Amino acid sequence: xxxxxQSCAFSCKSVCVCPAFCCAELPLIEAVKAGDLKRLQLELxxxxxxxxxxxxxxxxxxxxxxxxxREECLQALLEAGADPEVRTEVPFxxxxxTPLYAAAAQGHPGCVRLLLQHGAAHDTRSQGDGTPLLGAxxxxxxxxxxxxxxxxxxxxxxxxxxxxxxxxxxxxxRAECLRxxxxxGAQLDCHMTVSGDNALISAVKGDFLECVxxxxxxxxxxxxxxxxxxxxxxxxxxxxxxxxxxxxxxxxARVDQTTNLGVTAAMFACHAGSVECLEAILDAGADPxxxxxxxxxxxLYVAAAEGHLDCVxxxxxxxxxxxxxxxxxxxxLTIAAKQGHEGCVRALLEAGAPTESLQSLLFSVAAxxxxxxxxxxxxxxxxxxxxxxxxxxxxxxxxxxxxxCVQALLQAGAVTEVACTPFAVTPLTIAxxxxxxxxxxxLLEAGADPxxxxxxxxxxxxxARNSGQTECERLLREAGALESDDEDDSS
Length: 491
What we know:
Blueprint: H1 27-34, H2 37-45, H3 61-68, H4 71-79, E1 88-90, E2 95-97, H5 99-106, H6 109-117, H7 132-139, H8 142-150, H9 165-171, H10 175-183, H11 199-205, H12 209-218, H13 232-239, H14 242-250, H15 265-272, H16 275-283, E3 291-292, E4 297-298, H17 299-306, H18 309-317, H19 332-339, H20 342-350, H21 358-373, H22 393-400, H23 403-411, H24 427-434, H25 437-445, H26 460-466, H27 470-478
Antiparallel strand pairs: 1-2, 3-4
């Protein structure tokens, strides 16, 4: 890279992207680059081609002057009759911009005014199909924004994705540009055609508090949502942007709205693990026991699933029901045990969460009767109508090998013979199958029946042996497990 070209007009962040020889044969462009007005005037007097581009067709002298902010050079060129519309083209970088776009995006308001005064098109699209006004807003050049607005640029002209200059300013946190656009009357509640984001949501996503406050003060719709129904409050909660969330809540934004699938702001906060956002949402009146989603879940269930202990504790302290059952019989305790979040398991147990749901206990009773006569239809009444198969916290912890969770559940009096899955498998059986030796030992010490059978007659020792878990098989045999003659290999 040649040092003499560090300020190339079609460069990115002032780093030249063109070959060393690309501008060398054009004295007019060299004069502009150097800001040498006297030399430029000599070239003009000598009859230099005003609109000639460099050897690769990537820009004229006007392009360079506009991009580099050489106002005197630009004025001389334009007064001499240079075309203000010759584009800078760098195909392999997807760059195609007019001098006006370049001046606006680089922050040269004087050049912007000169180009407009000499007939440059206000709203010609350039790279990314953006207009000069959008480029100025994106880069945060307030004076250029104001110059373009004074020159008659269309304040609402959007990209093919529906992004207006105001939305762009909000998305990139350009508060001064946003303020100027709002003052000029830009529409506040336009939406992106792809995501459905509006300016307020874009500002919240970037955690641009000043932009959020500007839009709120201007009257932006606080309840407007994206294509999936997410509001600015939900987006702030999902990203843990507490300051933006509190600003929205102070302005009166609702906390009880849901997405198209019924997800609430509190659930988003729990998924993100933002206890500060969750607390703000609850303080604003959100129902901690609200159920949403498909299949259904609560904020407590989400927090437990993600292992966010602080959120779990806060919800429990605010009166959330620790025994709430989701579709298919799952509870917050079940999912915490399944994921191995021991802290959440213990917090839920301390808050009174039952170790088994009523559904899992009913299924266990039905399974006990079915084991004798083997009529699978006897279980239909106890099976969930949708969602996962019957389960329990102890079973899930045992299956996944979470020793700490198993210990906590056993200390809380969990039923060791609870039947899970359509085949009524016990925690001991699944632990043996998976080779969780320590858990097998713990369950046996807690009184688990080593001879409990599945619906089809399968025993823990049989499944351990078939799975190649020799140590578990040995422990079961030492505990009195018997071989069975009536086992069905399908269980």
